[in-house]
Amino acid sequence: MADVFPPLGDNPVADLNAMQEGFLPGELGLEVLEARQGFLRSQMKVAKKHMAPNGFMHAASVIALLDSAAGYGCRISLPEGGSGFTTIELKSNFLGTAREGDTVVCEARMAHGGRMTQVWDAVATHQESGKTIALFRCTQMVLYPR
Questions:
Q1: 106-126: per-residue pLDDT in tens?
Q2: Which pLDDT band holds residue 7 (cuts at 50, 70, 90)?
Q3: Domain boundaries, given as residue ranges, for the chain
Q4: Which residues of the chain form beta strands (DSSP E)?
C-alpha cells in the first residue's frame, strides 16, 4: 500500500490548505493558520452553508472544523513509519454557537501520541466574543503501509 498522504513540504500550513480543496474542509472554508508537531490552529468564517434552519451554526459544521483540525494535527505528528490515520472515536460538548458572518477559531492539541493511536483535544471559540462554542476530543488510529 502506498502512503495514504503525500509528504508535506517546508510550509505545512500552505500544503494543508491546498490539499483540502475540493474536499469537505475546503468546501466549508476551513483555513489552517498554524501547524506544528502536536498543535494546529484553524478558523472558519461562518456562512449560510454552515447554518441550521434555526439561524444558528449547525453542530455538524462545528464538528467538521474540530475533527479536521485534529486530523491535520495528527497528520503532521505521525510517528516514524506512519502513513496516515483515521478517526475512530470522537466526542463533543456544545457550549455556544455562532451566526452568519462570525468567525470560529479552533485550537487542537495532541494529548497522547502513541505508535498506534493519538488522542487530540480541540476547542472552538467565537473569535469576536472569545466565548467557547465547543469542546472536542477524538482518538485517531495511526495507519502503516502493508
A1: 999 999 999 999 999 999 999
A2: confident
A3: 12-143
A4: 31-36, 39-45, 84-94, 103-113, 117-126, 132-143
